[in-house]
Amino acid sequence: MSENHIYREDFKKFSRKNPYDEKLKAFDAFVLRDEEAETHKGAWSKVFGNPNPLNVEIGVGYGEFMLEWCGNNPNENFVGLDHRFKRSFHLVKKLEKIENKNFRYLRGRGERIEFIFGENEVDNIFYFFPDPWPKTRHNKKRLFQKPFLDAAHKVLKNGGTLWVKTDHDGYFEWMNDALKDETRFEISLKSHDLRHEYPEHFLSQYTTKFEKIFLSQGTLIKALVLKNKK
């Protein structure tokens, strides 16, 4: 099976052997697991019951950005996804306490966005501090490469935006290499030191748990803002 099998229509879904998978079922009013999310492709306005803008975060981690963003933007819809079971469970317990359910949480993977969302359905994709897979033999596991860019271009609307932040120099270089011959996205921001170069920028206004750790260590935050063109 090819390295990109996860991007294929016939991809075999996740095993349900993790004990936290059963615990997530208690939150099925706003949580979708694995292939459940793919049944709503192209119909997220029906899921939310409104035609408001649709925003997607890949790899929500501990959910700091998702929680704050949803509170600040009650009239927009938000779908957060992460594939880690235990972390997902602890986050959805916090999400359950929010009265305005302008969000859904997906236990899923970023590689599957073209099977989760329809063409031109998404306004923004947020991709913050992903696993950099720093060892050379693991680089192929990095999400940011051509198949992902193909999928992002497809699901984002014309003018839709892919927002990226990373602490990792090597992964940032990898991203820029992937964009060298890319004509479908306009790079509206590229920074090797976001906090000092663009302290008032949207991306500097939200600080995740991981980001706080990196900043305390003196690590420079790298960022990209890519505008989709169709």
Helicity level, as a percent range? 25-40%
Number of strands: 8
- Compute the separation of the termini in Å: 32 Å
Provide the spatial order of strands within the biggest beta sheet: 1-4-3-2-5-6-8-7
CATH homolog superfamily: Vaccinia Virus protein VP39
Shape: globular
Mean pLDDT: 92
Strand content: 15-25%
Number of domains: 1
Q: Major sheet, described briefly?
A: 8 strands, mixed
Cα gyration radius (Å): 17 Å
The arrangement of helices and strands along the chain is: HEHEHEHEHEHEHEHHE
Number of helices: 9
Structural class: alpha/beta
CATH class: Alpha Beta
Low-confidence stretches: none
| Name of the CATH architecture | 3-Layer(aba) Sandwich
Using the coordinates shown, work out and report the CATH topology. Answer: Rossmann fold
What keyword list fits this structure?
single chain, about 230 residues, alpha/beta, Rossmann fold, globular
Describe the structure.
The chain is of the alpha/beta class. The chain has a single domain (16-228), classed as Vaccinia Virus protein VP39 (Rossmann fold, 3-Layer(aba) Sandwich), CATH 3.40.50.150. 29% of the residues lie in helices and 22% in strands. It is built from 9 helices and 8 strands. Strands 1-4-3-2-5-6-8-7 form an 8-stranded mixed beta sheet. β5, α6 and β6 (156-166) form a beta-alpha-beta unit. The chain is globular and about 40 Å long. The two termini are 32 Å apart. The mean pLDDT is 92.
